[in-house]
Amino acid sequence: MAKPPARDLDRIKTGAMERRFSLLKAGVVASSRLALSSAGSVFAPAAERDQRRRRSLQLQSEYFVDEIGKLKGSVVKIGQMMALYGEHLLPAEMTQALHRLHDSTAALAWPAMDSILREELKARYEELDIETIPLGAASLGQVHQARRKRDGRELCLKIQYPGVAEAIDSDLDLVTHLMRLSQLLPQTREFEDWLQEVRLMMHREVNYPLERETTRRFHDLLAADRRYIVPEIFPEYCTEHVLCTSYEPGVSVNDALVRALPQERRDRLGMAALDLCAHEIFTWGEMQTDPNFGNYLIRIDATGDQDRIVCLDFGAVRDFPEPLIRLARGLTLAAFNHDMPAMLRAMQGYEFFDQLSPSTRESLGELLFLAIEPFADPSTIDARYLDEQGHYCWARSQLHSRAMARAARTATRFEFTAPPKELMFVSRKLMGAYTFMTVLDAHTQARPLLDRHLQRYLQQQTQG
Asked: pTM score, two decimals?
């Protein structure tokens, strides 16, 4: 039985005026409190003033984020995006507060959810026994476990909150307007492009018929591979606002049960995760762009024969245009071979890279060389990051932290404020996958795995 959320909401504020008022109130209250705090410490010593200011900013940021969490919908989604990409755009206190939106949001109380389900499922509602306590609550909807009465089949109902799809555009416009008034957002074309991409992605995430077909497609793609589990779709219980799949239990990658697995079993899980990412780039040309750990569970095999990765939530899966896929494959191949001339050639013809100076392109190439470190020739890797067998130790290497720190340092020197929207989502995926591997504490010898994918890609290019 899932634990109930700390607090429930009786309803979702869906009216444009109501949501606008709530956001404006949160912004005005937070700004006013911060101003009062600053005025109250005007005669304090400089060090004390700075400490008070930071503490006040922290408290008011947390207040603002708590109010955002109550509204749910795209307001929360844009807050989550800002948490991921706001390190150089927002005060650190605001970024830290926004990260809380990833932990949990308030659930909608069962009477309201029950009313939604009865309206959506009609007569089929009576075919199910539905748990009133949600398995999880997110910004756009929540998930409830159910059991089909006639055969006891365990199901999972993903239920969209009413009105959130219609509020996406107005929510996004209002949040960005408030942040611009506070001079917290950069006025650049790249950032505008990224905001448009956020808008499109959120519209995709509320498109449950699209997610249903995407889930079905990935289920078919991975059905024969025992390393993975993708839920089965039950279309008779699916609607525009309800998605019904098989219930697939598992534990989080950071669960104590996973950490207690023998090293070789965690290594196999890590290699499976890397292989899945490689298939997304080199075989399918589409990827899950949301690296949230909640989208991946571990099904531990009691016999120790085959632990499996449970893949959930395909609302953030997107296909990328062929030029970007070609770029990603070319950059990966050049990084794999540690070939800077090939790296620079792969960048040619892509507007973002073409506008940069040669030295900046080379700096980005060096960053990609670092990102490919787990797949490099072991003889070229710092021995501190290898175990006795020469396998790459993800937790010991802290690659995800080193790569993010390098990216932050280089970004401040480059002649751009933000990379193109597509690259931001790809980098989000990459950092999420690397963090997954680090938490898993996998030791991998992944060069042969990536080499196989690259060789197939080169063969296809030759045949094409």
From this structure: 0.83
Q: How far apart are CA 316 and CA 293, in angstroms?
A: 13
- Which long-range contacts does 312-315 make (Cβ < 8 Å, 24+ apart)? 312/231, 312/248, 314/211, 314/214, 314/215, 314/218, 314/288, 315/204, 315/205, 315/206, 315/207, 315/211, 315/214, 315/290
Amino acid at 434: Y
Other CB atoms within 10 Å distance of the CB of residue 348: 11
Please check whether residue 157 is in contact with residue 28, taking contact to mean a CB–CB distance below 8 angstroms: no
289 vs 285: CA distance, rounded Å? 12
Mean pLDDT by 10 residues, the chain (464 residues): 53 57 56 48 53 66 69 71 64 74 72 96 98 89 96 97 87 75 60 75 90 96 97 98 97 95 97 95 86 86 95 87 88 95 94 86 92 95 96 94 78 56 70 90 97 93 77
Q: Is 333 helix (H, G, I), strand (E, B) or coil?
A: helix
Q: Which of 114, 8, 84, 94 is nearest to 54 (CA)?
A: 94
Size (the chain), residues: 464
* Residues in Cβ contact with 135 at an 8 Å cutoff, skipping those fewer than 6 apart: 2, 142, 143, 144, 145, 156
Find tokens 């021995």 and name the residue: 383
In this structure, how many other beta carbons lie within 10 angstroms of the beta carbon of residue 148?
17
Find tokens 């070939």 and name the residue: 339
Produce one character per residue of 378-416: b if its CB has 16 or more CB atoms within 10 Å, e if not.
eeebeeebbeeeebbbbeebebbeebbeebeeebeeeee
